[in-house]
Specification:
Blueprint lengths: L4 H10 L5 E9 L26 E10 L4 E5 L6 E2 L30 H7 L5 H8 L3 H18 L7 H15 L2 H7 L1 H11 L10 H7 L2 H4 L2 H4 L1 E5 H9 L7 E10 L2 E4 L12 H13 E2 L7 E7 L5 E6 L3 E2 L16 H6 L2 E3 L3 E3 L2 E11 L12 E7 L4 H16 L5 E6 L13 E3 L2
Parallel strand pairs: 3-14, 5-7, 5-10, 15-16
Antiparallel strand pairs: 1-6, 2-3, 2-9, 4-8, 6-7, 9-10, 11-15, 12-14, 13-14, 16-17
């Protein structure tokens, strides 16, 4: 690992005082792809080490993020997997398909459907703001959202139809300078970045995790040590040796005492976002009820053979209602009176680590379990072009590992062509881990 001052500044800002900042690199050289025919599944020689005992320690969700964080624990379950065959049919995922939603002005109405098609990761704030705008301001905001999505997702603007659609958006923004000034250019830039999760660097909310973890999990960490990280880091690390292509990933981290905290690099620094990512969000909108809400988080832990604990958060895509005895909290909770009516009680507020102006409150419920949904009821949703050859086997390994790390019951995979065209329902694939 290479020490680098730039990473140290970011990590110290995101973590506790006195923490050391480092840049960690994950490298792996994959095996040759070989001459694998279409439809053939390539073998992977996997180790047979004992699988660790996974513990689901807590669950939570963000009910609100603006102006302050309101966190519900256990999580309020709102994202439900749809079993209606009509809902599971894949529609056109191409970016230019959005032109059917474009208004005569060149703008777009800001709706849940539009934001899902654009690949928005945090649509809540922009949806609330759009409701307060005049119709012409809302259409202008929609045009800016389309242009931002085209900028962030490589390949989205590659067709002539998509280029024409974006030019109409640009023409609207060019003649709306006075309206933009009235709406506030700085506010617009901030909300566009927030909507698409554009980050200067991200540290998972580790302080929140430590407040949510039960004492039986938290207390031993001071003696054994612990690694706090994201689930995708564990998946990348565990599968690197079987990658069919070169891997060169960077993760910022800081160390305090015997605790290691893994962060995430700014978007676009270590990896680019392709249009396939946007299509994945659009797929979720077709398959998941309340897909515009952020996934609930499951705090998981396990112990390494050396005694050190690993703490990570998993965010499954949906819940299968057929595996639940009751649909707890099926409707979104958005106001304090809703929290109280659902049986949550507020704890004392505390400051957000990287923004002193932000406060966070944890609302706890007296439900019997911190994770009150069977883990095998969770479903992961994926979209890909194929699962052939060594590349396909590598994808399947990552899909399985991501699901296994939260004990999810199924991975549902949709196949689409390279451009995101329509896919017949018979091509949907359900693979239990």
């Amino acid at each position: 690992m290479d020490r680098q001052s730039g990473y140290r500044e970011r990590s110290e800002k995101g973590g506790a005082t006195g923490a050391q900042g480092w840049k960690g690199k994950l490298k792996g050289k994959g095996k040759s792809k070989g001459d694998w025919r279409k439809g053939q599944v390539a073998p992977l020689n996997l180790p047979t080490a004992k699988w660790p005992e996974l513990c689901a320690a807590a669950s939570y969700c963000y009910a609100l993020k603006d102006p302050h964080f309101e966190v519900l624990s256990p999580a309020c379950h709102c994202r439900w997997f749809k079993h209606d065959p009509c809902a599971l049919k894949l529609t056109n995922l191409r970016f230019e398909a959005l032109k059917e939603m474009q208004r005569l002005s060149g703008g777009f109405e800001v709706t849940v459907g539009l934001l899902a098609s654009l690949g928005a990761t945090e649509p809540g704030a922009v949806l609330r703001w759009a409701k307060s705008l005049e119709p012409h301001q809302g259409e202008l905001l929609g045009a800016l959202l389309v242009l931002k999505s085209a900028e962030l997702h490589l390949g989205a603007r590659s067709s002539a139809e998509a280029e024409e659609m974006c030019r109409r958006c640009e023409a609207l923004t060019a003649k709306s300078s006075e309206v933009l000034e009235l709406m506030g250019r700085q506010k617009l830039e901030e909300i566009l970045g927030q909507t698409f999760g554009v980050i200067k660097g991200l540290w998972s909310f580790f302080e929140l995790w430590e407040r949510l973890l039960p004492s039986k999990v938290l207390c031993p960490l001071s003696d054994t040590g612990a690694i706090f990280c994201t689930r995708f880091f564990l998946v990348d690390l565990a599968t690197a040796a079987w990658s069919p292509y070169e891997i060169d990933e960077c993760y910022p981290l800081f160390i305090k005492s015997n605790q290691v905290y893994m962060g995430q690099l700014p978007r676009g620094f270590a990896r680019e976002t392709t249009d396939g990512m946007r299509q994945g969000h659009q797929l979720e909108a077709a398959w998941v009820l309340n897909s515009h809400l952020e996934e609930e988080k499951i705090l998981m832990s396990f112990q390494l053979p050396c005694g050190q604990h690993v703490i990570y958060a998993a965010a499954p895509d949906a819940i299968d209602p057929r595996k639940c005895t009751e649909r707890i909290g099926s409707e979104p909770l958005e106001r304090e009176e809703d929290f109280l009516k659902a049986g949550y009680e507020a704890g004392p507020p505390f400051s957000y680590p990287t923004d002193a102006k932000k406060q966070c409150r944890i609302w706890r419920s007296q439900r019997a379990s911190a994770v009150d949904v069977p883990l095998d009821a969770y479903v992961e949703i994926k979209k890909t072009t194929h699962l052939n050859g060594l590349n396909g086997s590598y994808k399947l390994l990552k899909y399985w590992l991501q699901a296994a790390l939260v004990k999810a019951g199924a991975v549902c995979v949709a196949f689409a062509d390279d451009t995101g065209g329509r896919v017949p329902h018979r091509d949907l694939h359900n693979a239990s881990h």
